[in-house]
Design a protein that fits this description.
The structure is a homodimer.
Chain A (H helix, E strand, L loop, with lengths): L10 H22 L3 H13 L1 E3 H8 L3 H13 L3 E5 L7 E5 L1 H10 L2 H7 L5 H20 L1
Helix pairs in contact in A: 1-6
Chain A binds a DNA duplex through helix 1, helix 2 and helix 4.
Chain lengths: 142, 142
DNA sequence: TATAATTAAATTGTACACAATCTAATTTAG
DNA sequence: CTAAATTAGATTGTGTACAATTTAATTATA
């Protein structure tokens, strides 16, 4: 068995499916004026309201090189504010604005819309979810 | 159930696992002087020896905006040649060179090295593979 | 307590990734 | 046959993604 054949890789279909599903979000996210990465960032903020860049990066698996410009864009759009912590000025505190909170309502149908054009039964979706989080947890260790 | 919570998404863990596993390849690929996208491109060429940009893009799920600069880099490194087809000059024929063929041997241990640091049992790997290709086939339809 | 080590973001540079547009070659249809 | 439509790549512009480095603030230690 040739382990350098594309069909024998596990990473390649992961890479493809990840990209293609993100692409399915694009038309819906365009309507509300954000990108996929900005969308998952807003998800954290819809949940937590306030967080610093480091903790946000730990949750999203992104570093400051990605987050700094992205957060500046979300600030420009008025969805968040960026301010140094008074307790520890190394920390940049990201806070959701009213406009950012309202954005959640505009996004409420997106997961359903994307799910519709994906055609994955309950069982497979559950298995996929379980395996992916198993992997994430083992990748987090090192 | 809040369908706009990060933990309730299927796309997010896909996106994370895809990125993190690609990152596992990086140190090994650095040793042979290519990137992950260049690596999967070479996989197609190790298999097919010659292909045009369109067909390559169909296999890799990448468009000419990504492939054109990437193929120029692989050409600079001496792993491929790029020449217009004489039959139909719209087609750019990508051919693997001797150096490109030799690269395969240098890469032969990479899949094993990456697999080692991933810790996924046979059963889960099989299930994951099956579900991902099920998804790819349904995504290809539209 | 001054200095070293650590930490959090920002910055720099390289490489995708893709939508949209453009150009040139080939096909198709009237 | 010839103009219109299609096709293949290239280009442009925006937005990640990340390694490596830098800067500034804080903490630890000799």
């Amino acid at each position: 068995m040739d382990n350098l054949k594309l069909e024998n890789q596990l990473c390649f279909p992961l890479y493809v499916v990840s990209k293609e599903i993100v692409k399915k979000y694009t038309p819906y996210l365009n309507e509300v004026g954000i990108t996929y990465t900005q969308y998952i960032t807003m998800m954290v903020l819809w949940d937590k309201k306030e967080i610093n860049v480091k903790d946000l990066g730990d949750i999203l698996f992104l570093d400051s090189g990605t987050l700094t410009p992205l957060l500046k864009k979300l600030e420009e759009k008025g969805f968040i504010t960026r301010n140094r912590s008074l307790i520890d000025e190394r920390n940049l505190l990201i806070k959701i604005t009213d406009s950012g909170l309202k954005l959640k309502d505009k996004c409420k149908n997106i997961p359903e819309c994307v799910a519709k054009c994906i055609n994955l039964d309950e069982k497979d979706a559950g298995e996929l979810y379980t395996i992916l989080y198993k992997l994430i947890n083992c990748l987090k260790e090192d």
